[in-house]
Amino acid sequence: MSTHVATRRRTHVDLAKMRADGEKIAMLTCYDASFAQLCDTADVDVLLIGDSLGMVLQGRDSTLAVTLADVAYHTACVVRGSHRPMIIADMPFGSFQESPQQALRNAVPLVASGAQMVKIEGGAEMAETTRFLSSRGIPVCGHVGLTPQSVHQIGGYRVQGRDNSGAVRLLADALAQQEAGATLIVLEAIPEALAAEVTSSLAIPTIGIGASRECSGQVLVLHDMLDISTGRKARFVRNFMAGETTIAGAIVAYVAAVKNGSFPGPEHCY
Ligand SMILES: Nc1nc(=O)c2c([nH]1)NC[C@@H]1CN(c3ccc(C(=O)N[C@@H](CCC(=O)O)C(=O)O)cc3)CN21
Ligand SMILES: CC(C)C(=O)C(=O)O
Ligand SMILES: [Mg+2]
């Protein structure tokens, strides 16, 4: 293919190879083209169009009212602003829990918007859905631990897997997702020792948020690391604007800190 065409094809980021090579994966949430361009320039590996957009963009107090159309719209915006990062779209509450068929039907507009992978919250109970999407050509990222779409069942945004039975269940959930074909998994708000056990038990890369450096990579909500989100921040957030004068600099600092293992530190862990 000649290089003078106006549209550049998106790069394929090989996350399995990064894990195998011991290169940390730097992931951020992103919701629009301008920030996507900054993240691309800073060499962020993966951009997640998270349903956290319901909180940081829409001002809601949970992610539960975010729609499929919202995520599809923001995915298309991020895709237009970037070329190198892998694009993962979060499937919102109610768009995939009903059945594998419902999940596939609703993953389609996200893939059509440019998502290369979709993320679904859940472990063993969502394994059949992961198997169905994967077998139909859609790569899946699992998400276990603190799953914000279950906030009412959990009873708040609480650390998960703290007791032995919770830890055993979480490991089984992660293994079930891998066995069903997930190629990536987010571990959210779990103790460091459990994150280490899950990561060493899995062959696929793990991405931590509040899950210590014992993961193959890290993710944060962009607005949290830029210190522009409202409300109380979780323990796992670090303000990367500190010591920086530009947003671009803060994103570069985040990528460097993830790559060299200096983020997250013990102060960000459970
Ligand atoms: N802006 C933003 N950042 C996020 O990280 C985020 C969202 N929104 N929306 C969806 C979920 C909600 N998340 C949260 C929100 C709060 C805590 C939190 O404050 N956790 C307590 C843990 C308390 C405990 O169980 O010990 C903490 O002190 O860190 C954690 C995750 C993560 N996700
Ligand atoms: C924090 C990440 C993992 C997420 O699911 C989101 O931003 O919605
Ligand atoms: Mg989410």
SSE blueprint:
Layout: H1 15-21, E1 25-29, H2 33-41, E2 46-49, H3 53-56, H4 68-81, E3 86-90, H5 100-112, E4 117-119, H6 127-135, E5 140-145, H7 151-154, H8 164-180, E6 184-188, H9 192-201, E7 206-209, E8 217-220, H10 222-225, H11 247-259
Parallel strand pairs: 1-2, 1-8, 2-3, 3-4, 4-5, 5-6, 6-7, 7-8
The protein binds 5,10-methenyl-6,7,8-trihydrofolic acid, 3-methyl-2-oxobutanoic acid and magnesium ion.
3D architecture notes:
- Helices cover 39% and strands 13% of the residues.
- An eight-stranded parallel barrel has the order 1-2-3-4-5-6-7-8, surrounded by seven helices.
- It is built from eleven helices and eight strands.
- The protein has helices at 15-21, 33-41, 53-56, 68-81, 100-112, 127-135, 151-154, 164-180, 192-201, 222-225, 247-259; strands at residues 25-29, 46-49, 86-90, 117-119, 140-145, 184-188, 206-209, 217-220.
- With 270 residues, the protein is of the alpha/beta class.
- The model has no long low-confidence stretch (mean pLDDT 96).
- Helix 2 (33-41) packs across helix 4 (68-81) and helix 6 (127-135) runs parallel beside helix 8 (164-180).
- Strand 4, helix 6 (127-135) and strand 5 (140-145) form a beta-alpha-beta unit.
- It has a single domain, classed as TIM Barrel (Alpha-Beta Barrel).
- The structure holds 5,10-methenyl-6,7,8-trihydrofolic acid, 3-methyl-2-oxobutanoic acid and magnesium ion (MG).
- The site of 5,10-methenyl-6,7,8-trihydrofolic acid has 16 residues, from helix 3 and helix 10.
- 5,10-methenyl-6,7,8-trihydrofolic acid (MHF) is lined by residues 52, 55-56, 63, 146, 148, 157-159, 189, 221, 223-224, 229, 234-235.
- It catalyses: (6R)-5,10-methylene-5,6,7,8-tetrahydrofolate + 3-methyl-2-oxobutanoate + H2O = 2-dehydropantoate + (6S)-5,6,7,8-tetrahydrofolate.
